[in-house]
Each structure stands twice: as structure tokens, then as C-alpha cells.
Design a protein that fits this description.
The complex is a heterodimer of chains A (about 300) and B (about 325).
Chain A: H1 2-29, H2 33-38, H3 44-53, H4 60-72, H5 86-121, H6 126-140, H7 143-157, H8 169-199, H9 202-209, H10 214-239, H11 246-251, H12 257-267, H13 270-298, H14 300-308
Helix pairs in contact in A: 1-13, 5-6, 5-8, 5-13, 6-8, 7-8, 8-10, 9-10, 10-13, 12-13, 13-14
Chain B: E1 5-14, E2 17-27, E3 32-36, H1 43-50, E4 58-66, E5 69-70, H2 76-82, E6 87-90, H3 94-97, H4 104-115, H5 120-133, H6 139-142, H7 152-164, E7 170-174, H8 182-199, E8 202-207, H9 210-216, E9 219-224, E10 227-233, H10 234-239, H11 244-251, E11 301-304, E12 307-309, H12 314-322
Helix pairs in contact in B: 4-5, 4-7, 5-7, 7-8
The chains are: A mainly alpha (about 300), B alpha/beta (about 325).
């Protein structure tokens, strides 16, 4: 068991290093922050001074080592735009993002999981088909289209809700709805197929052959097995809590981490982008670790494998 | 004596395709009946249908009586009492027949709680006794284990323990040894016949292994393409099969004694259930078939005491077997 997790934690750390390295290299190859921030009309000596001040004229491997050295000391750099520590800029945006993603996560689970279970138990029924059609629509329609559609109906046509901004709780309704619907659709489909797979297993028939009422067969034999694949997709959703709302925040002018990321990338504000990506990688990896741990809890076969691994 | 179970005209269709086409079968108390036939002949479906275990889209008709009481289409609560309580069932692939995420204790105790009036520690004690009974060593500790921690033979023993939990009057063993090694097969069959004797249970042994059936059953019913084509006491069927299909099955077995002989194979293949011939389903493969075999499907008719055959050429077939020329 200990080794099972040691290996996974090692892999998780490697994933974070790879993500950060990738971001570091791509950002430096894809544009000059000095030009982006000071503008093309800036005199060459000003640009040179800017590059020197931020260490941009050092060789890339030197910058890279420097960057990791700083991380080791707990420094994540400063924003090139206003000189504030990048981590501060990011942290102050997190509550706004969580104000959207946490309720959205709750709605996704509350809508998607029961819908999937219901559809699986009534396979082929009208409700099953309706749930699945909604689900397919829900995850084929990109979130920006859905967002605009909701704005068109509820803000423009009906005038019930504001189309953007962060002044009151009413401003959060449309962004949360956009995030929830797509996620609930994905979750419903996943849960349904996991459930169908389990319901076709011989041990379900065994439970029925024992004389167990169908309702109990579902709750105590089918659901615990169907939970295993469903937890995987839930893990991804937890991992996306910090940065899963980039598009939606942009559409609804919601000042969260996602919008900060878009602005920082556009400006080549290196430290801020790297800081966000590091944070995203860490949440993703952590939630995956939690999922791995839950697998061990849900499936005794994996527990045994871990013990022998 | 009134039969324990009597099945009459049991038919099953999956999305319009008939897989059982009128099965008639009766089973006495404490009797061991073998049900043989090729895969797809409807052996398992017969009992899954009788117990209401088929998926909802299966169309089931006919009658299944348990102690004279109709159970086909009975309310769910009544069926739940029958399943596991009066009629228990064990399946072919033990490895997937137990829930992988629940302990053996949980799965055994569920069956006990459903059908026996036991509380608290008595449930666990009974579970331990059942595991002991089916020969799982160190039963007390092994109760807390998960199915994957047992071998295939052991899991089948646990399945048998679970089936016995409700003190059933009938145990349906659906190919109980097909997925097991030959040595384990013998042990499981031995265990089944021991518990059957001790508990006075009736048993239906579904198998495509004629040897297994011959050794363990009083009576045998042969199924072909969703119908029973012949039933007889075991020794009579194996010594003197009448239906050409039963003859073919037995002719394909190598004799243990006597000179070596060429094994005979039944020509052709089982008809597609969606394209059943009009008359006797076996007629296209039958060497004795006459023109009239293609017109009407023969029904099971008695030919001797305790023997029934569904073949209009039964007499000719018998002569052919005995080597008497048909005049």
C-alpha cells in the first residue's frame, strides 16, 4: 500500500515538473514580453534595459535553472506589468473563480449522477433517450456557445439576469449554469455507461437470484461498482476547479483566475502565467492522487495489487 | 406425487426472435434432473425465465408452477421469496458471479438475512457453518476476504454455500463446473451430490457434458433449438437414446470399453433461431428425416414408462439404432 502511493506521488511530482517546464519553454519561444508590455514603439535601449532587468537576455537554460532555484526558495516571481508578486495576483482571484466552480461542481454532481443512474435503470425508455439527447447536446455544444445562448435568452430577450460582471449573486447565475450544464451532461453519460456495464455483470444476476429486491440490488450491489469509473471523471472535475472556467469567465467578464490567465498570456506576463499553470498542475495532480486513493478504497482488488506491487 | 416444479409451454423471445419454443418439464421433490444440449439450445434460459431473471425486453409466456402455485409473472415480492428461498441458482463462471467489491461475509449474510429468521451473531455463525459445510478451510477468517482472494473452485464452493443459505427445495446448477479444472470439477460435483443428499434438495444440473449428467442425475432431458426433444431416466437414455439428436450426441462420445470405433458427428449446424424450419427443428440435420418431418413440429409424446420423445420417426429411429432394417 505504501509503495503504491510512493510511486504515484513520484509520478505526480514528475508531472508537475514537466508541465512547468513545457510552459516555461513555450512562453519564452512564443514572443518577447518586453515588446508586449512596452509596445513596439519603445526605444531599443528601454527594451534592452527591460530585458536585462527581468533576466530575459540570459540563455534560456540559465533562466530555467534560475526559475527552479527560485521555486525551491518559495518565490514564484513578480508580474512584469505591475511588479507585484505573481502568487499574490493569482491568489486574490481564486475566491472569485471558486464562487463559480464550486457551486457548478455541486450542480454537475447533483444533476448528472442521478440522471445517469436513472437513464441506465430505464434503458431504452423515453426518459433515457431524453437524458441522453440532452447529454449529447450538452457536451457537443462548446461552453462559449452555450454561454452566449444563455445570455441571449436570459439577459437580452427576457432581461431577467445580467449578462456580465460580478456585482451581485445574480451575476453568478448564468456563468454557473453554463459550467453546470456541460459538466452534468458529461457526468450523466459516464454514469449511465458505467451503470449499464455493471448491470450486465453476472454478480447482479446472482444478487437477484438470491431473492434480493431489485432496489437493494441496485443500491448495494450495482452502485458501489459503478462508482469506480465515475470517480475518475469526478477527479478531473475537481482538478478543473481552479482553471476550468477560462472561457466562461471571459464571456461573462468575471474577474477570476481564468481571465487573469487570458490577460497574462496575451501580455506574455511570464511569471503570472507560470504561477497559474503551476497551480493548475498541482490541483490536477492532487485530485488525481485523491482518485487513486479512492480507487483503493472502492475496489479491494486494487488494494491487494497495491499491497503486492 | 405432485411435482415440485412443473413447466408447461414455456416460451421466450428476445426482440421477436424465439429462443424457447414451448418447454414442458416436470421435476419431483428431491429429484436430480440433467438438462443437456448444445450452447444456445435454451437450457439456461429455461430456468432464468422460470425465475424471472431474464432482462425486461425478453418476452416470456407459458406456465411455471412451484408446488402448484404459478410463479411466472408473479409479483416481485413473491418472486423474491422464491428466488434463493425455494429455488436457488448457481452459475457457470464463479469468478464473475460474486460481487468483487463486497466481502464474502456480506454476500453470504445477505442471503441468510433474506430467507432465514436469524439475528446478529447467529447470522455470522450460520455463515461460518455454511463455509465449513462446503469445505472452505479456516472459515471464520476467510469470511472477511473478497472474492478475488479465492481460487475458482473455492468461489464456486462459496456460491454453493450462498445457494444453500435459504434452505432451498431446488438447486439449479447452470454449468457449475464448465469454467473449472478437471480435478476441481470432480470435487464440486461431489460436493453438490453430498449436499443434495443431506438436505434432500432437488437439483437441475445444466450441462453440455453428458458424462457429468450421466453420473449425477436420475433423469435427463435433452434440449435442441429451444425445445425438449427427449427425456428419460439417465441409464435408459444413455443405453438406448430414441431421438435422432440424442442418438447423435451419444454417438459422438467415445466408449470407455469395447473396441475403438469411429466417432460419429452430427452433420450440419444448429438452425438460426430467427430462421427456424417449419417442422421439426432437427429435420435438416437428421439422417432419418422424411418429408412429413418438415411440416409439423412433433410434440413430446410418451413412448414408455417415464420416457417421452418428440419425434414422429421415433419408432424408425429406434430400429435404426438396434440395427433392425425398417421393412
Amino acid at each position: 500500500m505504501g509503495r503504491y502511493f510512493a510511486i504515484r506521488i513520484g509520478r505526480a511530482a514528475l508531472t508537475i515538473v514537466l508541465v512547468v517546464t513545457f510552459a516555461f519553454v513555450v512562453l519564452r519561444l512564443s514572443g518577447d514580453p518586453a515588446l508586449m508590455i512596452l509596445g513596439p514603439e519603445a526605444p531599443p535601449e528601454v527594451l534592452a534595459a527591460f530585458r536585462k532587468a527581468w533576466g530575459l537576455d540570459d540563455p534560456i537554460w540559465f533562466q530555467y535553472l534560475d526559475y527552479f532555484g527560485a521555486i525551491a526558495k518559495g518565490e514564484l516571481g513578480r508580474s512584469m506589468r505591475d511588479g507585484r508578486p505573481a502568487i499574490e495576483l493569482v491568489l486574490e482571484r481564486i475566491p472569485a473563480t471558486l464562487a463559480l466552480t464550486l457551486p457548478a461542481f455541486a450542480f454537475k454532481v447533483a444533476l448528472g449522477v442521478p440522471a445517469g443512474i436513472y437513464a441506465a435503470l430505464h434503458r431504452g425508455s423515453g426518459i433515457d433517450r431524453a437524458v441522453m439527447m440532452t447529454a449529447v447536446a450538452g457536451f457537443t455544444v462548446p461552453s462559449f456557445v452555450l454561454a452566449l445562448l444563455l445570455v441571449l435568452v436570459f439577459a437580452v430577450q427576457l432581461g431577467w439576469l445580467p449578462s456580465g460582471g460580478q456585482d451581485s449573486w445574480r451575476h453568478a447565475i448564468l456563468p454557473i449554469a453554463t459550467l453546470s450544464l456541460g459538466g452534468a451532461a458529461v457526468l450523466a453519460r459516464f454514469t449511465r455507461s458505467a451503470m449499464l456495464e455493471v448491470l450486465g455483470q453476472p454478480y447482479i444476476r446472482t444478487a437477484s437470484a438470491k431473492g434480493m429486491p431489485w432496489r437493494r440490488v441496485v443500491t448495494s450491489h450495482a452502485l458501489p461498482n459503478a462508482a469506480i469509473p465515475t470517480v475518475t471523471i469526478l477527479g478531473f472535475m475537481v482538478g478543473a476547479l481552479i482553471a476550468g472556467a477560462v472561457v466562461v469567465e471571459s464571456v461573462f467578464a468575471w474577474p477570476g483566475v481564468g481571465r487573469l490567465l487570458v490577460v497574462a498570456v496575451a501580455n506574455r506576463d511570464l511569471a503570472v502565467v507560470q504561477c497559474i499553470l503551476l497551480l493548475v498542475a498541482m490541483t490536477m495532480v492532487t485530485s488525481n492522487l485523491i482518485v487513486d486513493f479512492l480507487y483503493g478504497f472502492l475496489d479491494p482488488r486494487l488494494r491487494a495489487k497495491g499491497a503486492h506491487a | 406425487m405432485s411435482p415440485l416444479v412443473s413447466i408447461a409451454g414455456l416460451s421466450v423471445a428476445f426482440s421477436g426472435v424465439p429462443v424457447l419454443r414451448g418447454v414442458d418439464l416436470a421435476l419431483g421433490k428431491g429429484e436430480a434432473l440433467g438438462l443437456v444440449g448444445e450452447s444456445g439450445s435454451g437450457k439456461s434460459v429455461t430456468w432464468l425465465a422460470a425465475l424471472g431473471l431474464l432482462p425486461r425486453h425478453a418476452k416470456v409466456s407459458g406456465s411455471v408452477r412451484l408446488d402448484g402455485r404459478e410463479i411466472l409473472g408473479a409479483p416481485a415480492a413473491e418472486l423474491d421469496q422464491v428466488r434463493g428461498g425455494r429455488v436457488a441458482m448457481i452459475f457457470q463462471d464463479p469468478a464473475s458471479a460474486l460481487n468483487p467489491v463486497l466481502t464474502i461475509r456480506k454476500q453470504l449474510c445477505e442471503a441468510l438475512a433474506l430467507h432465514r429468521d436469524l439475528q446478529g451473531n447467529a447470522v455470522k455463525a450460520e455463515a461460518r457453518r455454511l463455509l465449513d459445510l462446503v469445505g472452505i478451510p479456516d472459515a471464520g477468517r476467510r469470511l472477511e476476504a473478497y472474492p478475488h482472494e479465492f481460487s475458482g473452485g473455492q468461489v464456486q464452493r462459496i456460491m454453493i454455500a450462498m445457494a444453500l443459505a435459504g434452505n432451498p427445495d431446488l438447486l439449479i446448477a447452470d454449468e457449475p463446473t464448465t469454467a473449472l479444472d478437471a480435478t476441481i470439477q470432480a470435487q464440486i460435483l461431489e460436493l453438490l451430490s453430498t449436499v443434495r443428499r443431506e438436505m434432500g434438495m432437488a437439483m437441475v444440473l445444466i450441462s453440455h457434458d453428458l458424462g457429468v449428467v450421466a453420473e449425477n442425475c436420475d433423469r435427463v432431458a435433452v434440449m435442441y433449438a429451444g425445445r425438449i426433444v427427449e427425456q428419460a431416466p439417465s441409464n435408459q437414455l444413455f443405453a438406448d437414446p430414441v431421438h435422432p439428436y440424442a442418438q447423435g450426441l451419444i454417438g459422438a462420445l467415445p466408449p470407455l470399453d469395447g473396441p475403438r470405433r469411429r466417432l460419429t458427428a452430427i452433420p450440419g449446424t444448429v438452425p438460426d433461431p430467427a430462421m427456424m424450419p417449419d417442422g421439426c427443428a432437427f429435420a435438416p440435420r437428421c439422417t432419418l428425416a422424411s418429408e412429413s418431418c418438415g411440416h409439423t413440429a412433433p410434440s413430446l409424446a410418451p413412448i414408455a414408462d417415464g420416457r417421452t420423445v418428440a419425434c414422429i420417426r421415433a419408432e424408425a429411429s429406434r430400429r435404426a439404432l438396434l440395427g433392425i432394417a425398417a421393412e
